[in-house]
Amino acid sequence: MDLRDKASTGMAGFDQAIDKLRLGDNVVWQVDSVADFKKVVDPYVEQSKRDNRKLVYVRFGSHEPLLGDSPSVKIVEIDARRGFESFATAVHSLIEQEGRKTFYVFDCLTDLLKYWHSDLMIGNFFNVSCPFLYELDTVAYFAIIRNAHTYSTVARIRETTQVLLDLYQVNGHFYIHPLKAQNRYSPTMFFPHLIRDQEAVCITASAESAELFSRIHRGGERLDYWDTLFQQAREALADTPERQEETKRLLMSMLIGHDRESRMFKLCDRYFTLEDILAIGSRVVGSGLIGGKSVGLLLARKILEREGEGRFSPYLEPHDSYYLGADVYYTYIVQNGWWKLRVKQKTEEGYFRYAPELKEKLLRGKFPENIREKFVQMLEHFGQSPIIVRSSSLLEDNFGNAFAGKYESVFCVNQGTPEERYEAFEQAVRIVYASSMNEDALQYRMNRGLFDRDEQMAILVQRVSGDHYRELFFPHLAGIGNSSNLYVWDRQMDMDAGMLRLVFGLGTRAVDRTVGDYVRIVSLDHPSRLPPMMAEDFRKYSQHDVDVLSLRDNALTSRGLDDVMSLDIKADKELFASADYERMNRLRELGRSGRSVPYLLDFQKLLKHSEFPELMREMLALLSQVYEYPVDIEFTANFTADHRFKVNLLQCRPLQTRGLGKPVEIPQLTDRRDCFFSAKGNFMGGNVRLPIDYVVYVRPQAYLERSEQGKYAVARQIGILNAKLKGRGAMLVGPGRWGTTTPSLGVPVHFSEICHMAVICETASSESGMMPELSYGSHFFQDLVETGIFYAAIFDGQPDVVFNPEYVLGKENVLASISPQSEPFADVIHVAETPGMEIFSDIVTQTLLCR
């Protein structure tokens, strides 16, 4: 080997014993103290200075500095408290920046336990940093405190590093015992060596070696530091209240979040006891934070228990969820060898570019054996009950960022052999992890300035609420609840009473806009009141299909309402549905009448004659009062034959809302032709007076005449215009539903393709049959409110509605000047400059005007 490829430890005798260091060596010292580590760092640094090496000291520990200020040493401080990803990424960037043949000293790795509370993550950090250092021909000194880490962590470090050395101090003498020295060997290399200044005396005699090692304490197998802290916390239950509170907050920083000044942390601190936190910790698979969705669920249940004074306890279904700690996500990435790709994806230039490749890899990785064993134990707990695997990212469901619908949730019907059920669960976890690279999620983070924030993916595993009905499984009710009803259509309505978005069966139809189907909007101040619609339209705008789990097919599926209602659902069917005699008569006239009466889902008996709506109103009010903020919940409910019921609270988060705004004076409309549109109700976004500088109008008939592929092409052009018109006061108007997945029902844009619009309007188109869907409470609504977009639905032809498309279409189409590549779409997309146009809305009078 070329001498230029070797380096010195600064101890001539020891250099001789191990044939020096090699460029590319990561050197890990097992020591009893940081002071002992400094004994070997000093000669290494002094020799490196003499050899004119570039020296970098990476400072992150709370211990005394290993090196002082020196013009020959670059000191870089990195904050480990920001978490594994930020720290590991910063170190990676530093190594990349300093380049080849740089020499490093790192603070003692054991100090990272104070910030990350996990041996696993220290092993992950070493696994991702060591190979990069090796690749760039660096030499780096690391240390770990002996007996402070698990065997598995030390084994991972031993496997990854090039040089592993034990440093002992016995009777005032220092000994170095090489345990690993890659690509070198001598007959005496792996004996202990007594260090005397520059001399290294090899201890070969058995008597001396035996005496030496008899004086060295080697601990037995250690628990991961994470488990050790929880074990100590259980012992603190017998300690003083002050010590219990201190211990509780430490565990909360490990499970809930690191920012003790955040509103969510303070709420959790107020309502959780040490026993509560220990109970949560007992259900964590792996280690790390449990994420926003899990925290919101647990906090809401605790608030109802503590503040409800017994009101809600008889009605709440118990829960027995499990939580996959966020550290499992990183471990999955690291141990599958994708960390370098992850770092590239986290850069501004690689953010979207590398996401598809990383997403594909996340769908086919392997989990570590110890995690797999914990998955098995968790699945044994659930048995064959259906479960749902839900995202619970660190930023999700928090004040200011809901991430509504951005990540996946996967139902596991959980039927089949244990092996089949395990594989289905594992794949569900992969799907949720991969959804962190969804384009909508990435764009959401970018738009909200969260692009560089850690977004570890924890996971919430819940037992699906419901029961078996022959070969189907479903709850009787599911839905969304909001403590503030921003969709009020009557001046007598009390917006503070809240609202529900209610469905029969699984709640998938409540959170997403569903093709050809509609949910029931319930205003909780007057639950049986219907949204404004023609009486003959009630059947059309009701729920016709039910989402269920098929135990036979082992899959999420849908069934027609009549098929489901033909089953014994173990409850009074009239709570949810009424006999549809009008449809029965029509079927009889057509000669297609059956034995059973068809049903119409109207929930009238439930809303008029049960305690359910009042209980939900009180629940939402209490949660909102404690949060001091409007809230948004997900829930299910199951009934018995005697009308008793249990509510399962599945999720709770702050409801992102701008509030009503100041009252707006609406101009008088003297001529119906003197406006673009006016209406009563059917809008969301509070009181506004907004200038509209551009209107982007999709012509219904021209859109309808496009092929399906052509309709998708129109959607992509809208995305281009969205980017071009950012910040320019644009209104988007089109037929049917924006964001549908079915082009025949509207324009199939992604939300990221309309996110810069100031106003979005959905219009009814009689020639195409496309209709708006007032989606208050859905993920689409959450996106609108969070982004500050005003929404309106224009039902042309209804009383009190004026709609004059020519008000805009009569102006020049400037599409090509804004986006030259969009010119072939000028027959479908009309872009008009509209200086002086304004849109006005008033909540109290439910008046909407654009002119």
UniProtKB/TrEMBL annotation:
Domain Pyruvate phosphate dikinase AMP/ATP-binding residues, every copy: 289-668
Protein name: PEP/pyruvate-binding domain-containing protein
SUPFAM superfamilies per record: Glutathione synthetase ATP-binding domain-like
